[in-house]
């Protein structure tokens, strides 16, 4: 094959790649820029028939898509009357079935002992050029079987950290669920650290006390517990771990470089004090599988937030899913300021372009599923129609 022919084929290939990139960018821009009309959200696996009599449509307004100051209405008492939310079991089952084509949460929720062994080299998901060696202590905490093996729950709650939970009196309602997942919200840029292991005791009336599974990004050890730099901070971190008695601690240890030491510290404390905490380390394919499902269904996320990740996995083992503390807006439905987290004084400062996440777009998606009865979003005081 002549050099000229190879050069020609290479040039054609480059042009084709450039064309595909431009087409993809155009599609994303069209999706993000589609603010002028309302639309229903129907991923290909979703039933086009809403369970609500009024045929509620998704508001694709700038506030909903770009994190503006005006939040969308969910049919609470501050807006026009809407029919009571009704669980759409048919749609929920359809979503579960289609997600299973991309991932199986029972399997992908954690790497198992049979998958890795001490000394194995793992490439980080977000930094494929960097690697980490599986230590002996981390290997000891890899579960032999999935922590969600053969589990099925009727009603599950996924609890975020938004300040919308303050004064909600949702604690009792959250604790009444069969399985409760608590997770972090993405970190604000240039602010005080957030805490994945969000405190619950002092806010129990609003957020509940029970925990079945909680996420912990390795960076929380640095940002919320000062890298365990003193006995005081080690004690605080240990107390927080003890609070998780019997729960699953979900640690994304292989997502990004920089957290390996902090993972080791957490693992060491769990082993040293023989804590009754079951650990889980998500499979290396989980995040890409979740993103693939939503992209296939025309939800153009950059990287799924932990909230969307947890919802996607929960469809595998939960019949009916309720979401609390999901609110990517600086004000509530009545125009009152909403803190970024329920447990600190941070102000809201979300900028979609500065984040790997697209929280308002995700919220718009979840709101559409709420209107169709696939899940329920609670965005106001419990006891009201939220």
Automatic annotation (TrEMBL):
<dbReference type="InterPro" id="IPR001675">
    <property type="entry name" value="Glyco_trans_29"/>
</dbReference>
<keyword id="KW-0328">Glycosyltransferase</keyword>
<dbReference type="GO" id="GO:0006491">
    <property type="term" value="P:N-glycan processing"/>
</dbReference>
<keyword id="KW-0808">Transferase</keyword>
<dbReference type="InterPro" id="IPR050943">
    <property type="entry name" value="Glycosyltr_29_Sialyltrsf"/>
</dbReference>
<dbReference type="InterPro" id="IPR012163">
    <property type="entry name" value="Sialyl_trans"/>
</dbReference>
<keyword id="KW-1133">Transmembrane helix</keyword>
<keyword id="KW-0333">Golgi apparatus</keyword>
<dbReference type="GO" id="GO:0003828">
    <property type="term" value="F:alpha-N-acetylneuraminate alpha-2,8-sialyltransferase activity"/>
</dbReference>
<keyword id="KW-0325">Glycoprotein</keyword>
<feature type="signal peptide">
    <location>
        <begin position="1"/>
        <end position="23"/>
    </location>
</feature>
<feature type="disulfide bond">
    <location>
        <begin position="156"/>
        <end position="318"/>
    </location>
</feature>
<keyword id="KW-0472">Membrane</keyword>
<dbReference type="InterPro" id="IPR038578">
    <property type="entry name" value="GT29-like_sf"/>
</dbReference>
<protein>
    <recommendedName>
        <fullName>Alpha-2,8-sialyltransferase 8B</fullName>
    </recommendedName>
</protein>
<keyword id="KW-0735">Signal-anchor</keyword>
<keyword id="KW-0812">Transmembrane</keyword>
<keyword id="KW-0732">Signal</keyword>
<comment type="similarity">
    <text>Belongs to the glycosyltransferase 29 family.</text>
</comment>
<feature type="region of interest" description="Disordered">
    <location>
        <begin position="39"/>
        <end position="81"/>
    </location>
</feature>
<dbReference type="GO" id="GO:0000139">
    <property type="term" value="C:Golgi membrane"/>
</dbReference>
<feature type="compositionally biased region" description="Low complexity">
    <location>
        <begin position="66"/>
        <end position="79"/>
    </location>
</feature>
<dbReference type="Pfam" id="PF00777">
    <property type="entry name" value="Glyco_transf_29"/>
</dbReference>
<keyword id="KW-1015">Disulfide bond</keyword>
<dbReference type="GO" id="GO:0009311">
    <property type="term" value="P:oligosaccharide metabolic process"/>
</dbReference>
